[in-house]
Amino acid sequence: MTNKEKVYEQLILLSKKVELDDTNQGVTAIEISEILKLQRNVISHYLNELAREGLAYKTNTRPVYFLDINIKKKKDGQEVKSSNDPFTKLIGYNGSLKEQVEQCKAAAVYPITGLPITLTGNSGVGKSFIANLIYEYAVEKGCIEKDAPFVTFNCADYANNPELLSANLFGYKKGAFTGAEKDTIGIIEEANGGYLFLDEVHRLSPEGQEKLFLFLDKGEFRRIGETGSWRKSKVRFIFATTEDLDKVLLDTFRRRIPIFVEIPSLEKRRINERVHMVHSFYLNEAKKIDKDLVISKNVINTLLSIKGNGNIGLLKNIIIASCANAYRNQLNNEVLEIDINDFPNKIKGSFQIKQNFYSENMTISKNHIIEEFPKLISTDENSIIKEEFKNITKLIQQFNTATIDNDKFKKLSTASMNKVLNDLSFNKTYIETDIVTYQLVFKIVENALSYIQQNYGIKYYGNTSKLLTYSVIMLKNISITETIRNFDFKYYEKILKKKLSKSYVIAKKMDSLIQNSLDYNCGELLIGYLTIFVNSFLLNIKTNCNAFIVAHGFSTASSIASVANTCYEEFIFEAFDMPLDVTTATVVKSIKQYLANLNTDKGTILLVDMGSLNEIYTELKNVITGDVGIINNISTQMALDVANRILNDEPVEEIVKKCAENNKTEYRYYEDPKKKSAIIVTCISGLGTAEKLREIMTKCVGDAEIEVIAHDYNSLVNDIQNNMLLKSHDVKLIITTTPLVANGIPVIELQNIINENGEEAIAEALQGVVKRKRLEDIKDDIIKFFSLQNILNQLTILNPNKIIDEVSKIISNFEYALNIKFESNLKLALTIHTSILIERLVLRDAVTSHPNEENFIKCHSDFIELSKEIFSEILKEYRVEIPIAEIVIIYEIISSRVKIK
Questions:
Q1: Considering only CA atoms, which of 235, 236, 237, 240 is closest in space to residue 261?
Q2: pTM of the predicted model, to two decimals?
């Protein structure tokens, strides 16, 4: 129990005495301070928080009096309503399950029909209980009617019988199958207006998932055996599973469920919440058997050490069994004493006491008087934070070895940081401090964030200052950090500097501002913590190019950088001011030190106010990798122009050339003598598909020192001579869905990537850049990930098996109509392209214009009509239309390989 909870409990107890004494005005901080032996200002701080939260009433007198808000309402003759939030029945709703509860509430109140939600977690963690709470919450908030149905359906009962599943889900018409003696409604209709809870959804067959996601899309269905008009039903869905969703659910089905809530296992819940469960379950049994209970401290410590399968369900069953055995053996006793011998035989000895949390027995009254839990001997309340720190260090290692990419690292590290911050916010036993210290640290953190916002344009919102204050205080606590300090921080710092260089620069500046103002030192750990925090919550990096402003004057460079950074709300420029009494050599030294913390592979741009551009490059070239551009005569207008082009991801040479022309000044461009190796992936249907193919290829190459880049097909083909990407990189290979010629650069078509020619091209491209992952392993991964089935699985939201059949029919019709037998490589190219095309049509993301469209309409009207006829069936099925531009692309794919008459 936190100090705040203890203060609130005492306020309730003392307020009840005030209720009976009309001469008593209320409770003072001093009264509670004397009881709890805590400082008066700490008590006052918590009482004021309770007043702000609406849990306490505060007078405007001297001294200040406080009352429990319910007692105050009673004294004023107001009706006291109990909490209307059903989730308050869930232990941990405002603690370790706070984030999960918020997600459940969001799904329930989303306009019109709510959002489908999936609850994941091991057996016994409480998924069914939470599903009921979601339903109750929706009723309470008026999202559904009070008498709305809540229907539960266990998919495991029909795992091997898809026909029976469909009959139960959608109902059936009389005579639809043997035994169908009357029209029968399904649970989809039964749940109309309410909730349908599908438990063990992983047991749904692919066919069942497909039928269900079609209903999720349209809200329409037919009973088995029905034809004609469609039926409608407004159903809210809750799904539950114990399995890994990526392995058991179709991508197409999973993508229709926007909210996934993971319920943690019992062993991952906080100690105080597990104590609450033990107390609550024993209290329920005390009321049932009408007996007071005394539970042995060994029983409590054993129950708090439970791990493995069963979770809350197992805990509850053990408690019920122990009460039953004690009741049988002590039938005539007024008070039942429960010890280890009352555990079921198969449980005895299977759990060991891992830690003595309690030093005394727990007494529970059947009359449910407010009781204080026995005090903990020792707790590991910091376990969540320690565990998440370990997770983050593992993620850093995986990020460094390219086991995970930047997006995955940010997603996973942000999830870990959220757990840390959530624990800091709602479990403050290890960060409690006096209010003066808290306010001091808060002010220091606030100043650091204000400096970062003013100079780097990085906005901070909401509780950022409060959360960082908790973090700084937490990192001071040796009991938290001593186990974390065991890892080699220097090793991780090098990785963070290289991989998250901009976040690291901001973190280092904040670390300096904070620690220089504190009267204690958090050590090097704070820099790493802040780097992850900045990367997760403050920085939204849109570019990897680095840019600097170097200008004479006390704050000229800082002022210009601040304007540009603030304007675009992005850390683009770092500033180096050169006061007149500071030598150029000193400033250059500072720039070198700064560059040592940056990854400059993506290019560097320097804006300077005067001096020799060649001399500046000569001084810095040894610490910069990648292309370098320098522009003279810096101005605010020039900085904004450069910033805009950096955000648009233009190449360094193009940026400095155009900006120098626009601002009528000189520039220098120095091409990186060591161009970074690259593989380009391109697709005629657009960047979206190319980007997805890039993700697949990036997985395959792993930590090889080569960049995989998605590029627009038309811009690559139309001006290949002047393509800036080809100039700025050492392009080893181009992977394309449609043939192209690229000035001596090897080109391989996607459908050929897993044959002998593809293997040779890949081996050649990766020569000299492979690191830990062997070339043979990369080839194996390419075969695995670039098989037709895998490509379609990752590129389409539709059922790949169904799509392949539909597309095969389309291709056959083209062969028949054109009187041409397509070679296998053309068939494969068309299969991939057409499958992706259908997905884009469904998602309303089709290509709507083509540079050759007008001429194509004049010359190939027959092909347009033919294509519309061939696609008519599938267009009707998905209720979409195919633009002329998409037909042009199909024509180009076919005509690039065969001659169309």
A1: 240
A2: 0.44
Residue that the structure tokens 């008590």 belong to: 43
Give the C-alpha separation, 823 to 749, whole Å.
Answer: 14
pLDDT digits (tens, 9 = 90+) for 44-81: 888 887 887 778 888 877 788 888 888 887 776 655 44
The domain 546-670 is classified under which CATH number: 3.40.50.720, 3.90.440.10, 3.50.50.60, 3.40.50.510?
3.40.50.510
Measure the CA–CA gap between 594 and 303, rounded to whole angstroms.
54
Rounded to an integer, what distance in angstroms lies between the CA atom of residue 626 and that of residue 675?
7
Token output for 689? 């598909």
> Quick one: 403 exposed, middle or buried, by C-beta within 10 A (0-12, 13-18, 19+)?
middle
Task: Return averaged pLDDT per consecutive 10 residues of the chain, 901 residues in all.
Answer: 77 82 80 86 82 80 84 67 75 83 90 89 92 94 93 86 83 84 90 94 83 84 85 93 83 84 85 82 90 88 77 90 92 89 78 60 69 42 71 84 77 86 65 62 88 83 80 66 52 80 87 77 77 84 78 86 84 84 78 77 85 71 83 90 87 90 89 79 77 82 82 76 71 85 82 74 80 72 70 67 84 90 82 83 80 88 92 86 90 87 73
Separation of alpha carbons 441 and 274, rounded Å: 32
Give 122-141 as a DSSP string. Answer: STTSSHHHHHHHHHHHHHHT
Residue pointed to by tokens 């690229």: 742
Q: CATH code for 267-364?
A: 1.10.8
The two structure tokens encoding residue 842: 């469904």
Task: Classify domain 3-75 at the CATH topology level.
Answer: Arc Repressor Mutant, subunit A (1.10.10)
pLDDT tens digit sequence for 787-806: 666 666 666 666 777 788 88
Q: Which overall architecture, per CATH, does domain 677-778 show?
A: 3-Layer(aba) Sandwich (3.40)
> Residue 539 contacts by C-beta under 8 Å, 6 or more apart in sequence?
458, 502, 503, 506, 571
CATH number (3.30.70, 1.10.8, 1.10.1790, 1.10.3210) of 793-895 reads 1.10.1790
Give the list of residues 6+ apart from residue 299 with CB closer than 8 angstroms, or none. Answer: 322, 338, 339, 340, 342, 343
